[in-house]
Here is the input.
Amino acid sequence: MRTLAVESAAAASNRASRPQKAEDFQFGLSKDFKVPQGVEFELNEQDPLVGQYRQFALESGLNQAQFTKGLDLVAAMRLGEAQQFAAARTAELGKLGATANDRITSVVQWLTAMAGDKAAGIVKMFQLAPRADTVEAMETIIQKFVTQGSANFSAGGRVPPADNGKIPGYDKMTFEQRRFEQDKRRAAAR
Here is the structure.
């Protein structure tokens, strides 16, 4: 009987010390939760999932300490995701070289100039999560647009070479080779 009374009293004490409404759960991380130095991180209390988590905690009979420990786990998960995202972004920027930010800015400016507000979604993507291959593909498109698909202009080959009537390598040819080249030129002139 004594064990039953002890368990009943403990359960009653636990129920009485738990928040009675979902809103009564205090939002915040435990004092033991440490964010790595140099990293800015904060959970958003306005996130709709926080309200759902509060309701879950109430229905599951969690106390404030258990609720806070759950927030610590969510924060650790979000922090890990943020660090993975930052590492992936840095790797993509590294593929673009030292002028990565300038290249991205050029693509963003071109897209904005060409499509205005309709490009807002893709512009945001280039700013938040650029991929090197996508930036390079856009640079190719921009170049083809600017040049209208033509190659770069070169005047080379437009002016015929000056023909001074000399046969190249004439002084090193045999008599037969010289005669052959002379006959070939006469035939071409007719």
Helices lie at 2-17, 48-60, 64-96, 100-115, 120-128, 132-147, 175-189. The two ends are 129 Å apart (CA to CA). The chain has seven helices and no strands. The chain has a mean pLDDT of 85.
